[in-house]
From TrEMBL:
<keyword id="KW-0249">Electron transport</keyword>
<dbReference type="InterPro" id="IPR051269">
    <property type="entry name" value="Fe-S_cluster_ET"/>
</dbReference>
<dbReference type="GO" id="GO:0009055">
    <property type="term" value="F:electron transfer activity"/>
</dbReference>
<dbReference type="GO" id="GO:0051536">
    <property type="term" value="F:iron-sulfur cluster binding"/>
</dbReference>
<dbReference type="GO" id="GO:0005506">
    <property type="term" value="F:iron ion binding"/>
</dbReference>
<keyword id="KW-0408">Iron</keyword>
<keyword id="KW-0813">Transport</keyword>
<dbReference type="Pfam" id="PF13370">
    <property type="entry name" value="Fer4_13"/>
</dbReference>
<keyword id="KW-0411">Iron-sulfur</keyword>
<protein>
    <recommendedName>
        <fullName>Ferredoxin</fullName>
    </recommendedName>
</protein>
<keyword id="KW-0479">Metal-binding</keyword>
<comment type="function">
    <text>Ferredoxins are iron-sulfur proteins that transfer electrons in a wide variety of metabolic reactions.</text>
</comment>
<dbReference type="InterPro" id="IPR001080">
    <property type="entry name" value="3Fe4S_ferredoxin"/>
</dbReference>
Length: 61
């Protein structure tokens, strides 16, 4: 599984961090970080984060 985030669209709401904290987080500077190739076991979380993103900035492949 691969996850991409369109950072031009991302407004740093953090909904993805709430939905999938094992994949998404904010660093100390408030920038979004994520696992680009997380384990397949996290697919449900990844898709929940993509659904929760108000900007539809998360692409799960
Ligand atoms: S929910 Fe979407 S817009 Fe908000 S921080 Fe996550 S990727 Fe960015």
């Amino acid at each position: 599984m691969k996850i991409k985030v369109d950072l031009d669209a991302c407004l740093q709401h953090g909904q993805c961090v709430i939905a999938a904290p094992e994949i998404f987080s904010f660093d100390d500077d408030g920038n979004l970080q994520w696992k680009a190739a997380p384990d397949e076991a996290l697919r449900d979380d990844a898709e929940a984060a993509a659904d929760a993103c108000p900007e539809q900035a998360i692409i799960v492949e």
